[in-house]
Amino acid sequence: MPREKRSRRGSTIVMVALMLVAFAAVGAIAADIGRFYVVAGELQTAADAAALKGAMVLQITPGNSPKSTIDPQVMAWVASTNLSDGSTLSVVADSIHMAFYTPASTNNNTVTPASLVLDPAGRPNAVYVAVDHQPKGVFAQVIGRATGPQIARRAVAWIANLSLSCIRPFALPYTPFYKRVAGLPSNANVAFPAPDVTAAQMVAFQQNATIADRTFIILPPGTPYPFALANDSSWRGYNPPSNQNGNANSGKTTFQNFLTGCNGVAVNSDAGNGNTVPNQGNGNSCGAPELTACWTSAVIDQSGGGGNNNGQQPICSAMRANDAGCYMTPADTAPGVIVDAAWADIVGNGQSVDFRYVGEMQFTCFFKNTTDTCNAIPGTKTGYPVGTMVVIAAGLKSRKLNPSQDILSNAPTNVQRLILVK
After folding, report:
1. Which of 183, 222, 303, 321 has the fewest Cβ atoms within 10 angstroms?
2. Are residues 189 and 241 in the same domain?
3. What pTM, to 2 d.p., does this model score?
4. 49: domain range?
C-alpha cells in the first residue's frame, strides 16, 4: 500500500473528536442561553409581584414617608414567594424606591410614562423594585466561572385613580353607607354630617365585607313608616349639571334624560349650582310615594317611554315579570349592572343635596311593582314600595367627572387600580 494512504489513517476520528468538543460547547452555550431567558422571566415576574405588593402597602399607608413601612414587607414578600434558577430570591432596601409616576396620556386603560421621579419629596403614588440574580451556567462552569452573567429586571406599580364618564342622577344616603364602611351598627348615633370615609377604610371594606354587608336596600323618597325604620334610608333624584358650570333644569324631562342618557359631567359639592331635587309634585300614579320614583320606573328599562336616551342603553336593558332584577341582557342568569351614582346627605327640607362621593355599585334590583321579588336581598325579598332600589357597593370615586373620558389618572379619588407601567 502506498505510503501517503497509510499516513491518513485515523484523521477522521480526530476530526470527529474535535467536532464533538465544538458541538458540546455550542450545546452548553445554547442551554445556558435558554436558562438565562428562563431566569430573566422569573426575575421579571418577581419584580412585578414585588412592585404590586409595595403598591398595595403604599395604598393604605398614611403620610409622605412610607418607605420604612413598605421596605420590610416587600423584602419579606420576595424572599417567601419567589424563586429564580431554583434559588430563593432576595431584594435589599436600596433596590426598593418610592416614586411619583405621571401618565402622559390615557386611552382605553393604556398609559404612557411621562415622568418617574424616585423617592419624591411629596406623597408617592408608585413603587419601583429592582431584582437581580446570577444564574448557574454549564458553559460558564466549563470555563471556570461559578455563575453566569448578572441578570437584572425592574418593575414599577402605579396606584392609578379612576375617573368617571357616566353618572346616574340618584342621591343615595351617605350616613348608612358610612356606618357600614366604618363597621358601626345601623342604630349607632353619628353626628351630621357623617365623617369622610378614608381610602384605607374603603380598601378594607371592599376586601373584607361580605356581599350582604355591602348590599343596601334604599327606598324611594316619601316612603312612610314603617319602611323608613327598616331599611337603609331613602334616595332622592337630582338634576346633575350638564357641564362643570351647572346649567341644570329641574323637572321630569331633564331628570329622565340624565337617567337614561347619562349626560352629566360633574357633581358639585353642594346643591347651590342647579343640583336640586326635581320637583316632586303630588301624586302616586305608578303606586310610588312620589313622582320621582314614577319617572324612574317609566324609563329604567325604557318600557314606559318618556325621556330621551340619545340612543344610549338604559340601565336595565332587560327586566322580567314579577322580578325586580336589573339585567343587562335577556340571557343573563343573575341581575346586576355596574353604575356610578352619588352618595349624598339630604339637607334642609329635603330639596337640597350635599354630595359626598360618587360611588361605583352594582345596581341589582329596582321595584316597578310591590309584588316584584329581588333575590339579591338578604332578608325579605318582596313587598317593597315602587321605586325601591337594591345596590351592592363596590367603591368610591371623586365627585367630579372627567369630560376627556380618560379612565386612569392622578386626580384624587378613593377608587384605585394597581397598574404595572414599566
Report:
1. 321
2. yes
3. 0.72
4. 11-161
